[in-house]
Write the structure tokens for this entry.
Amino acid sequence: MSTPPRLPSSNLQFGFLPAPPPLSRIVARAMTCCALAQRIEIEPPPGTVLDDETRAGTDDLLELSLEWLERHGMAAGPSAAERGVLQTPAGALDGTTRERHAAAGEAAAVIAWSLRCAPLPPFDADADAAAVATALGWLGDSGAALPTQARLRNREDLGTYLDAVSAVHWRLRTAATTPGGGDPVSLARWAVDRYSWPEGITPLEIAADGDLALGGRSIAAATPQELYAALRRIRGRHHATLWLLGQAREWDAIDLNL
């Protein structure tokens, strides 16, 4: 079968900076996302009383994370607010903060893919934040060397992925905010035989009705919980892709309005 033609992404026509962030900043952002995902993961459930040994071990890990970023020239990666999260003792994160950074592992996965370190999981599956961190070399020598050894994927591949992730984000948000989930929307242009998916991306799954599929079923059959989880996942991936393509220089300035 011949390779289908790559469809141009309208997302790249307006509002983007002419070049991606410097490689050093991209790696620092990837590692910051790893640190945030790790911080969220080790936060105990609300109301948990930590014993002294567990608390000390957790605090040591938090200190190690910031020290590692500093030692390898990545201290500028976290914003002031993110640094505050990474300095918050275990058991002290509020629910709003946990939710705000819950998709950090998804963002790290997109950046890891952009740096050719790991493939991206399907659109309807969560990224394994720990596996992504390992692939990036988080807290290790390979991660420290990444700023000089990584190769960023070309802008065309990033733009192609943005085209698809934008469509998925829009469909999920429509389904989550429209009574009854809205009318079925055809996403057939993203079918594997019509769309030139970049290497390392699992193609979008299309349901029998031509709409987005989640877990093998049409989005029309998704529960509110499934929609919410998918929307959170895709927001993290969309955010990272827009930043990599230069929608804004600062991570927190990215606009996800569709």
